[in-house]
Specification:
single chain, 72 residues, mainly alpha
């Protein structure tokens, strides 16, 4: 089973539309797009990491984290 098969139908459609749009890109345009996509992926990973750290209280003072947990 491929990754594409595991995607929801909306994302499979979005991927198909993207493939159609980039089909005729020049090599230079394709390289620029790949760089932009990688940059976006790195930003997304960093954002997720920061959200998880914030949610889990990683890197915070233990007393502050415990106070926040007891308030919930």
């Amino acid at each position: 089973m491929t990754i594409r098969d595991q995607l929801p139908l909306e994302q499979q459609f979005e991927l198909q539309v993207f493939e159609t749009q980039i089909k005729d890109l020049s090599q230079a345009d394709a390289q620029t797009l790949l760089i932009q996509l990688r940059e976006a992926m790195l930003y997304q990973a960093t954002t997720f990491r920061e959200i998880l750290k914030e949610t889990w209280g990683i890197g915070k003072d233990i007393n502050v984290t415990l106070e926040a947990l007891t308030e919930e």
